[in-house]
Write a structure and sequence with these properties.
The protein contains 20 helices and nine strands. By secondary structure, it is α/β, with parallel strands linked by helices. The termini are far apart.
Length: 449
Amino acid sequence: MPGELADTWSAITALLHRAVGDSAYGIWLEPLIPVALEHGTLTVAAPDEARGWVADRFARVLQTSAAAVLGPDATVEVVSRSHMQRGSDGARARAPSHFKPATGLNPKYTFDQFVIGDSNHLAHAAALAVAETPGQAYNPLFIHGPPGLGKTHLLHSIGAYIAAHGGGLSVRYTTVEAFMNHFIAALQSGSMERFKAAYRGSDVLLIDDIQFLGSKAKTEEELFHTFNELYELGSQLVLAADRLPREIVSVQDRLRERFEAGLVVDVRPPDFAVRLTILRKRARLDEVVLADFSALEVIADRVTTNVRALEGTLIRLVAFHSLTGRPIDGALASEVLDGLGGARRGEAGGPPRSVRDIQDAVCALFDLTHDELVSRSKAARVAWPRQIGMYLSRELTDQSLPTIGRRFGGRNHATVLHACKRTADRMRADRDAYDAVNRLLGDLGDRDR
């Protein structure tokens, strides 16, 4: 299996596993074999007797998981193994199931999984109103707040709700970076009409990370016209950013005015009750066996400002439990948190770090130069530190996966996802890996003190 295909499939299967659970994944999806990845179409082979069931029952989760990794224009084709084997003699009748993604949504982000509290109830209510009556309630809806507090979750929840109950309305989720990359590719390939149809033909357009739009004049121009056309047609627009529209100073006034023309709502850091509920839902979703709930109470009490940091702390707690066999209780949670100090981004006292800060810390710990870390080398002494660096960059910064990939030598988002999964898995099984990650967290937290 070529390296790119293997990395992409690894990232997709991580999402599939999370979305459907251990039992369904083990029975139906684990036997799938990636066959090819060409022009945005992923072909996977299923056992003959299961192909029809997989194609029908798991169409949406295959589609959304592939779109999350490969981008909104990805497609998935399911074929049977016997048809693949007959392909070499020219008599290949693949009986394919072809899925064209209408959403690009993450299947785990739904309203059911969103925890409501005083810090986000208005944003949740507005998002639900938009989902129930797209184009009529609040248009546009602009959601703002610091990273890691649920803005992306709400955008995906709107899309998932409309995809399920919207009577066939088309939904497209994108980030500003993905929109820009798609736009540039369309310009270079002369396929602007296809690009315009893809976005301006949407009944609901969800755009994340609007703050990264600044100073990209041609992309701004295209987004301006896309926004106007959709608005005039009555299509729903939902935007998310880490700041208020008026604070995105590098964006043209005319576009900023349109962002503010509808309802602007915020999400704030969750209170203790919401933090505890988030942890309970995540523990239940991941089937974490708790000795007592005081473990979650300790985390909720001490990790105070960021949902991503809450979930990351729970992952480390489970990793430590796997390595030591100790029960997951309040004492273990306190010990793990004491060992981590205040290094995590989003925890009180933990200063945010840049990708370069993380790269410098990784290079220092593993005795590498920066050039080696971001090189194409696959040597173990370089590849493993690089994976840790990408994992920490995703957890400790608000940079997108493509941005992190570029900072690590021009790698794609699928490679970054694979690195994150590989690091998390290795932390659970290898004490040295766990200690290395936590040593880096400590080093990063100790700087500037």
